[in-house]
UniProtKB/TrEMBL annotation:
Its main location: secreted. Keywords: Cell wall, Disulfide bond, FAD, Flavoprotein, Glycoprotein, Nucleotide-binding, Oxidoreductase, Secreted, Signal. Belongs to the oxygen-dependent FAD-linked oxidoreductase family. The keyword Flavoprotein applies. Gene3D superfamilies: 3.30.465.10, 3.40.462.20, Uridine Diphospho-n-acetylenolpyruvylglucosamine Reductase, domain 2. This is FAD-binding PCMH-type domain-containing protein. It holds the Pfam family FAD_binding_4. Residues 73-247 form the FAD-binding PCMH-type domain. It comes from the Eukaryota. Its cofactor is FAD. It is found in: Secreted, Cell wall. Coiled coil: none annotated.
């Protein structure tokens, strides 16, 4: 009894100490910020928000993409800074470091695990939503884009300058450029031109000491690491010089659904052999969901086969008839449109005008606001029997909101060496699977049954996907596969468990880069690259 009392007392003391430390460092942090900006014109106070500012909550929530991390129990930042200038970023780094606060950098807020706006130690968000200018140089086929821009804004601005070029970025237009390129970044054109990260010529970066570095100053190791090594590990990338790539005036899309009764199993089985070998001009995805079978009230699986082809319907039709006659495409399934329209079509945006690409806060009503997602890479076709097992998991009652997106690799992705960028999922990868299960915000207090379901599915799939390591996409962040210690002291061995899944052998070079640029491990989170010798 007595010892319990002592323990409680100790707890109270430690707890109040922790509280007062965080309150003090918070005040000192604000003082530190204001002391750095003597001239009114560049004052940082215009972009500093604490819980006392009326717009704090609105700014915090503005880009939270996964409502799983927007509950009454989710830790909130002490301060949000929305920089307008490089000096605002430098000052925030300096003052955070001095006062022992962690920084979380947010560009578009799409991190699957909310790492850009949640931390369980006292923290500051550097929110780059106002740091998003875009400078397109049509003549030289390049653009400078600040990290806080979303991909839709970049597509829109390029399209204003020239309709025959674009950037090979994400499908989803609200994804932030900062996080996208930091993790590689794939989209409609990746089988033709590679990842977003494969198409970057230069960058502006701020390190833990507040130094601003471009490619020449940072050197090739760090320039390599920031294009695929995952956001939040090395510093803050301010902007990127990206390459533009040609697009034709007409592209062709199709999207046809096949249920189990319409041979979805055999078709998906066949697709595994066909899609990775299609010409580079084709983006091919199969989206799996379940639906009510007509009439008798049982559910069935729906496989939606969708493609975007960089060319005309007259070229695509014979190609599909030759390569994938089983799908039974007819001419009426093919629709010609512009590249921008194909993006809007494939992501099922309701509004056909390109202006929707500028809407940063747009939320697709087809997606559930809260979700858990995971990923796999497949290097050997799955047998039909394995697909049957997958269907029985999807047809469980809990899984009505589950979806799988199966995205074909091959093409240009096979030609780029595994070590060219930290992103290693290149030659020999047939496709990537993205597993997703969503729920309504009201269910956020107890999403456990959904979490259990997707974890069980992931265990089942282990037998059929890449092994040693079981590969995963860093930009589909998944803390189930491993996480760092809270104290910032994570061993190489521990981190390499998740590190090898995301980066394979490239993990070692990332650790080397981290040890050089941020040996004190100032920039860190649950899955940041640890420095060596910790
Ligand atoms: C609805 C949806 C659709 C998606 N579609 C695609 C897709 O088509 N293609 C694809 O490849 N991925 C896609 N993703 C995944 C997406 O690429 C990643 O979630 C990506 O990290 C998001 O970038 P962000 O800037 O929006 O996210 P944020 O949450 O802002 O950042 C993600 C990570 O990067 C860090 N970070 C952000 N900005 C910077 C910076 N400037 N400097 C350093 N670190 C930074 C953050 O701290 C965090 O760790 C999608 C995700 C969602 C939720
Ligand atoms: C937030 O409130 C503080 C204190 O009232 C003020 O100094 C600061 O300018 C406010 N921030 C913004 C962005 O209005
Ligand atoms: C800071 O950014 C603002 C807005 O982009 C701009 O008006 C101002 O000139 C910049 N100040 C400096 C010192 O760069
Ligand atoms: C795009 O069109 C412009 C003229 O409108 C032309 O100068 C340029 O070469 C074209 N670029 C590509 C990649 O086709
Ligand atoms: C399904 O495949 C079988 C044989 O493989 C074929 O006879 C049948 O017509 C197909 N059904 C549909 C709906 O395409
Ligand atoms: C499917 O059927 C269930 C039960 O009959 C019903 O609650 C649900 O709304 C239906 N879903 C759709 C998409 O029609
Ligand atoms: C329900 O209908 C589908 C066809 O839509 C059929 O394949 C299935 O066997 C039927 N189920 C039952 C229980 O009758
Ligand atoms: C952006 O989209 C959301 C719907 O997701 C809508 O409520 C909002 O009005 C849109 N904003 C603009 C500026 O169109």
């Amino acid at each position: 009894m007595k010892s319990l009392h002592h323990l409680l007392l100790l707890f109270v003391v430690v707890f109040s100490l922790a509280l007062s430390t965080s309150a003090d460092s918070h005040e000192e942090f604000l003082d530190c910020l204001s002391s750095y900006h003597p001239e009114e014109s560049n004052s940082i106070s215009r972009v500093v928000y604490t819980e006392l500012n009326s717009s704090y909550s609105a700014i915090l929530e503005s880009s939270i993409q996964n409502q799983r991390f927007s509950t009454p129990n989710t830790p909130r930042p002490l301060v949000i800074v929305t920089p307008l200038n490089t000096s605002h970023v430098q000052t925030t780094i300096h003052c955070s470091k001095r006062n022992g606060l962690q920084i979380r950098t947010r560009s578009g807020g799409h991190d699957f695990e909310g790492l850009s706006y949640v931390s369980d130690v006292p923290f500051v968000i550097v929110d780059l939503s106002q740091f998003r200018s875009i400078d397109v140089d049509v003549e030289n086929e390049v653009a400078w884009v600040q990290s806080g821009a979303i991909t839709g804004e970049l597509y829109y601005r390029i399209n204003e300058g020239a309709t025959n070029v674009t950037f090979p970025g994400a499908l989803c237009h609200t994804v932030g450029i900062g996080g996208l390129i930091s993790g590689g970044g794939y989209g409609l054109l990746f089988r033709k031109y590679g990842l977003a990260g494969d198409n970057v010529n230069d960058a502006q970066f701020v390190d833990a000491n507040g130094r601003v570095l471009d490619r020449r100053l940072m050197g090739e190791d760090l320039f390599w690491a920031i294009r695929g090594g995952g956001g939040g590990s090395f510093g803050i990338v301010l902007s990127w010089k990206v390459k533009l790539v040609p697009i034709p005036s007409t592209v062709t899309v199709f999207s046809v659904g096949r249920t189990l009764e319409q041979n979805a199993t055999q078709l998906l089985h066949r697709w595994q052999y066909v899609a990775p070998n299609l010409p580079n001009d084709i983006y091919s995805v199969v989206s799996i969901s379940t639906m009510n079978a007509t009439g008798n009230g049982t559910r069935t699986v729906l496989a939606q086969f969708s493609s975007v082809f960089q060319g005309s319907a007259n070229e695509l039709m014979p190609l599909m008839q030759e390569r994938f006659p089983e799908l039974g495409l007819v001419r009426e399934n093919l629709i010609e449109m512009t590249w921008i329209e194909s993006l809007i079509f494939l992501t099922q945006l309701p509004d056909e005008s390109p202006e929707i690409l500028l809407n940063r806060t747009y939320r697709n009503t087809l997606l559930y606001p809260a979700f858990k997602a995971k990923s796999d890479y497949v290097r050997k076709p799955m047998p039909e029997i394995a697909l049957q097992g997958l269907w029985s998991q999807l047809l469980e009652d809990v899984a009505t909101t589950a979806t799988l997106n199966i995205i074909s690799y091959g093409g240009k992705m096979d030609e780029i060496p595994e070590s060219a960028l930290p992103f290693p999922h290149r030659k020999g990868t047939l496709y990537k699977i993205n597993y997703n299960i969503g729920w309504r915000e009201e269910e956020n207090s107890n999403p456990q049954r959904y979490m259990n379901w997707i974890r069980k599915l992931y265990r089942y799939m282990g037998a059929f996907v890449s092994k040693s390591p079981r590969e995963a996409y860093i930009n589909y962040r998944d803390l189930d596969i491993g996480r760092n210690n809270h104290d910032g002291k994570t061993s190489y061995k521990q981190a390499s468990v998740w590190g090898r899944k995301y980066f394979k052998k490239n993990f070692d070079r990332l650790v080397y880069v981290k040890s050089k640029i941020d040996p004190q491990n100032f920039f860190r989170h649950e899955q940041s690259i640890p420095p060596r010798f910790h």
